[in-house]
Amino acid sequence: MKIKNITILGGRGKDGIKEPVEEVSLNMGDIVSVVGPTGCGKTTLINDIELFANENTPSGRKVLINGEVQPEEIMFDPSNSWTFMPGYAGAAALTGSSKIPWISLIN
Asked: Do residues 66 and 3 make contact, with C-beta atoms less than 8 angstroms apart?
């Protein structure tokens, strides 16, 4: 798969209230910093990207790759701890790492 962009569609906060940001799009080459106070959801956001969330995580977010939901066979299942690789999939997707054979980024 060649990734040109990643779109994160908002879900809900830990209080169950809809997130104020409905959509965030990242394109190849974008440099992003995720900052905020302890407990605001930074790690949850990064985990949702790593898992290619499809409304199947506590946040209810959806992550689109090139505008599409990813097939189940390449999604990481958050209920199976052996499939969860923190920092691996999302970091590889955004940095162009070749450690995941089905991901490569277009310059």
From this structure: yes
Cα angle 67, 104, 52 (rounded to 5 degrees) comes to 45
* Domain span including residue 63: 2-105
Read off the pLDDT of residues 1-10 as tens digits, 9 standing for 90 and up: 788 999 999 9
Q: Is 91 exposed, middle or buried (0-12, 13-18, 19+ CB in 10 A)?
A: middle
Strands 23-27 and 5-9: antiparallel
Number of domains in the chain: 1
Give 63-103 pLDDT, tens digit per residue: 999 999 887 766 665 554 434 444 444 544 455 544 444 44
β-strands 2-3, 104-105: how paired? Answer: parallel
Phi-psi domain of 15 (left: phi exceeds 0; alpha: psi -120 through 50; beta: other):
alpha
Q: Is the pTM of this model over 0.70?
A: no
